[in-house]
Amino acid sequence: MQGILRLYAFVLIAVLLLWSTAGAIEKQAYQTTSDAIIVYNWGDYIDPGLISKFEEETGIRVIYQTFDSNEAMLAKIAQGGTPFDVAVPSEYAVSRMIAEDLLIPLDLKAIPNLKNIDQRFLNQSFDPHNRYSIPYFWGTVGIVYNAHVLGEGAIKSWNDLWDPTYRNSILLVDGAREIIGMALNSLGYSLNDTDEAHLLAAKAKLDELTPNVRAIVGDEIKFLLETDEATIGVVWSGDAAEIMSENEAFDYVIPEEGTNLWFDNFVIPKTARNIPGAHAFINFMLDAENAAINTEYVGYATPNLAAHAYLPEDVRDDPRFYPDASVQEKLEVYRDLGKVMLGRYNELFLEFKMHRK
Ligand code: N2P
């Protein structure tokens, strides 16, 4: 027994030592941050040319890391290991980060290019007066489908996805709010629903979709659809725009039952070591020409009104990607449902993913 206890103690000490050394190494690697910033953004969500341009113009080096869901980003920032200077949460994640005291208030005087942002994207309910966040891109969650194979207009609603003829045809984006939200909407419920019976019904409905689901994937969803590996994808609007520019067989639809309207935003986490650098980066990205270059590259809708002058008309006038106010009214923005309910969504989504195996 003594021997076993000693072994346990030894393993515990070894693990603790490894853990603290890894932490120290990580911290040391980021010690020289007065000439650098660490940016934490969604994958495929910036023109890399702009990072080099920022580095050349300011002499500030950009250390760039990516995530593929708000949930993954929230967990990493809350854990605090990496001293991120800039992050890009969606609106409900901004609320969560404010509630958890993870953000610093912005110095709006250091972001004069804020004037370029369309007023209607400012001062939103998740962050009145833009105390903590500045709009980056916005869009919807919807369905991109191969109209050449399935037929023009073949898909109009979430419920169309359950058609048994689409066996093994659908790729889903790997996000808990997105996919549970889709199932809730398909049942006529709000994608902010917190009623346990409705959530269980949504999970059961998702399980019924399983035979049609080919895979649940991250940013590779674009490549897989562009190269005809699947005929249907549940994606964010800008990813659809990118797929459609590479493969003209695809079309994008905002499902008729309604869907999510989202807003992604720059924030400065409390972990920041280079606060002036973080402001300089945000201001640089808000410059009209830079925002236009970025918009053309990533394919998402920009809230930067001044950038519109530099964008081709067909980009900024496409109602699939810039839905007008009447369409937007029918869509829902994710609300921050609190830590416990977000955990419940994550749990149900995980169960759905396991059920597939
Ligand atoms: C881009 C991610 C889009 C973010 N790959 C949707 N909020």
Describe the SSE topology.
Blueprint lengths: L1 H28 L6 E7 L5 H11 L2 E7 L2 H10 L6 E2 L3 H9 L34 E13 H4 L19 E4 L2 H11 L9 H14 L3 E5 L2 H7 L5 E5 H10 L3 E4 L7 E6 L8 H12 L1 H11 L14 H4 L8 H4 L10 H17 L2
Parallel strand pairs: 1-2, 1-3, 5-6, 5-7
Antiparallel strand pairs: 4-7, 4-8, 4-9
Helix pairs in contact: 6-7, 6-14, 7-14, 8-9
Bound molecules: pentane-1,5-diamine (N2P).
Question: What does this 3D model show about the protein?
Answer:
- The longest helix has 28 residues, at 2-29.
- The protein is built from 14 helices and nine strands.
- The strands form two sheets. Strands 4, 5, 6, 7, 8 and 9 form a six-stranded mixed beta sheet that branches. A three-stranded parallel beta sheet has the order 2-1-3.
- It is globular and about 55 Å long.
- It has two domains: 2-137 and 263-325, 3-Layer(aba) Sandwich (D-Maltodextrin-Binding Protein, domain 2), CATH 3.40.190; 139-261 and 331-355, Periplasmic binding protein-like II (D-Maltodextrin-Binding Protein, domain 2, 3-Layer(aba) Sandwich).
- The model is unreliable at 21-28 (pLDDT under 50).
- It has 357 residues and is α/β, with parallel strands linked by helices.
- The protein has helices spanning 2-29, 48-58, 70-79, 91-99, 147-150, 176-186, 196-209, 220-226, 237-246, 275-286, 288-298, 313-316, 325-328, 339-355; strands at 36-42, 61-67, 86-87, 134-146, 170-173, 213-217, 232-236, 250-253, 261-266.
- Bound molecules: pentane-1,5-diamine.
- Pentane-1,5-diamine is lined by residues 42-45, 90, 219, 236, 239, 262, 264.
- Pentane-1,5-diamine (N2P) binds at residues 42-45, 90, 219, 236, 239, 262, 264.
